Hints:
The chain is mainly beta. Helices cover 11% and strands 45% of the residues. It has helices at 3-9, 50-55, and strands spanning 12-19, 23-24, 31-32, 36-47, 65-70, 87-90, 93-103, 109-116.
Amino acid sequence: MTILAAILSESEAMTFTRHAAGTRDATSGLYVPGSTSTLSAQVSLQPLSMREVQLLPEGIRQKAAWKLYTGTALQIADPTANALADQFTKNGKVYEITSLGEWDTHGDYNKYVAFKVEQ
């Protein structure tokens, strides 16, 4: 069994909201969000370990966070391309993908970290 197959054996289907790149309004200079679409993926959703929490910068250690393992490419924010990060909802709270760890050499899957969006 591959690592990805093992991960997906304990996974759940999740729906992500993907935001197309936005633009800047020429007149006002304000950001105009791009259109949204949905993406379904099988992910293993797990809480961060205490060690992972301790490695976070101070000020965000108390934020609700998850780590996700999946073979599906998710999008993190890219300010240079005006692209927002993928988001998902868990227990009525919205989370945003904030970081990516590529594990191609260990089984062709990715590890992502998502934080609760403050509203």
